Amino acid sequence: MNERIEQYFDAALTEAERKRLEADWATDPDLADDTAFYLQVRLAAQQIAHETLLKKKHEQWTNLTLNSSKPFMPKRWLGIAAAVLLLFFSVWYFNQSFQDDLSGRAKDYVGHQLKELPLHLGEEEQLLQQAIASYNQQQYHEAIRLTQSYLARYPQDVEAWKVIGLAQLQGGAYTEALYQFHRLGDQTQLYNNPGKYYEALTYLLRNAPGDEEKAKKLLQEVVDKNLEGKQDALKLLK
Amino acid sequence: MWLKFAKQPTDEELVNGIRLDYPQRQIWENKLYLKFRYLIKQAMWKYKLQEDEASMAYSDAVLAVIQYVYTGRFEQRSSLKTYIYRIYQHKCIDRFRALQADKREGINQRELNDYLELMPDEQQDTIRRLCEKYEVARLKRKIALMDDRCKQIILAWGEGYRDKEIAVNLGYQSAAVAKTSRLRCLQRLKKLYKTVNGLIEADDERAD
Question: Interface pTM (ipTM) of the complex?
Answer without folding.
Answer: 0.82
